Amino acid sequence: MAADSGDNCIKTTALSGGLVVLSERLAHIRSVALGIDFRLGSRDDPAGKSGTAHLIEHMVFKGTRDLDARAINIAAETHGAELNAFTDREATCFYGRFPGDRRRPVAALLAEIVSAPEFAPTELEKEKQVVADEIRTADEDPDSAAVNLLLQAVFGDSPLGKPVAGTLDSVAGISPADLRSFYDSFYGSGCCVATAVGDVDHDELVELAATSLDRPGRAAASRTPAAFAPRRALVEVRPELSQVYVCLARPAFAYGDQRRYALSVLNTALGGGVSSRLFQRLREDEALVYSVSSFTELFADTGLLGIYFVTDGRKLGRCLAVLSEELSRLLREKIAAEEFERALNMTRSSVLLSLESPTNRMMRLARTWLMLGRVIGVDETLAGFDRLTRSAVSDLVEELLAPDGFYVGAVGPGGADVLTDFAAGRS
């Protein structure tokens, strides 16, 4: 079944095995951004085997039935291609960027890598060492550690609360049989989308997908629904640091919620730029921080609105007090008309500027399909912002920023007591 979208000629074809092919031809682009995405992320890892999806992402590049890792790398670079992959909590993406006149051989190579991994024991043992170094690097980085602590504070011991790469112990316990079982059970066409943007031929991509990727498999792993832990602060004390790295969050809503447009604008107004409330107050007016921002993290079934900042450990109490004052002022005064227009324009601009990149366009198409089962094009997104009202953003302020505490993840020389009080709403 094939369909054309009115949004800049986005084409969609659903194959008999369940795989979906998406393409968007951009006449002015002479390269291709291709992604093969699976609706399988770290939240789908088997119990006691966190890091499985991420390890599979690594291992597909270590060899297939016909190509070893060196041959894969040589083949890619022979055609001028850059291949890569990432895993997050919702999905795994294998992708590449390459010249349009090399799209057939590179697409075939990426399809082979994804569809026929070997999981050779010797390669697995080497790659587990690489992943262990990746885990140690993240653990030692205060930014990454604070984010992981925040998600653990929010979701506890559930899959969403675990690091994407797993832990040193969990990765050490993953065997070739574990990878093979998980891959064969779930990496089928029912949870896969192949997406290409740029100098593409949709029919050519459909033909390749039908022969190489459209294979039987379960639609998706059985997921544990998101569940929030009691509100709390998780603080890792590192006496050698002078700065405190703090992540705060409040529950929001799922990726598919229509209020996501209002949330994006609220995020921009709160901490999304240099004119935002938090940047102006905490950095420009009070000189309490070098870095401060807000963020959103939307999953398939829930979401977060968060704040991140780094401050001198001696300023932490004052920083939290000023932050509370600014949030109270926002709750009291809501979003002003001029502030709404500025944040709306900045948010729309961010969307448009990101789409100058074919890779960003490809990833956006794939993500909306995986999360919502349909394409959300640029025109539909911009229309969503055009319909947005200031009152819709103010309503979210009331809903998401009530003064009853935050989830907290932090790393620094101290501050556990004051952050625990802040988490409980006792600022």
TrEMBL record:
Domain Peptidase M16 C-terminal: 174-345
One of the GO BP terms on file: proteolysis
GO molecular function: metal ion binding; metalloendopeptidase activity
A Pfam match: Peptidase_M16_C
Highest taxon listed in the record's lineage: Bacteria
Matching SUPFAM superfamilies: LuxS/MPP-like metallohydrolase
Residue ranges constituting the Peptidase M16 N-terminal domain according to the UniProt record: 21-167
UniProt similarity note: Belongs to the peptidase M16 family.
Name used for this protein in its record: Insulinase family protein
